[in-house]
């Protein structure tokens, strides 16, 4: 394994742990987006650019956006 791959693995491990320990929903969405982006970096480090592009679209853009929209709608209904 190269140094870049080891750094990417460590980054994924740290951000995965941060997602679990983050308690505020809005903050958790931000950390989840960063975690998705770090997965894409990991896939690029392991020479899988097609999987990295999918990871960027799904876990770094689509999922956080859907969760933020759901949180906004839930706050509207509370009023």
Descriptive account of the structure:
It is elongated and about 55 Å long. It has 3 helices and no strands. The chain has helices at 3-21, 25-45, 49-78. It has 79 residues and is mainly alpha-helical.
Could you tell me the radius of gyration in angstroms? 15 Å
From the spread of the alpha carbons, the general shape counts as elongated
Please trace the helix and strand order, writing H or E for each element: HHH
Number of strands: 0
What would you call the quaternary organization?
Answer: single chain
β-strand amount: under 5%
Portion in helices: over 70%
Instruction: State mean pLDDT (0 to 100 scale).
Output: 91
Structural class: mainly alpha
- The number of helical segments is 3
Termini separation (Å)?
A: 53 Å
Biggest sheet details = none
Poorly predicted runs are none
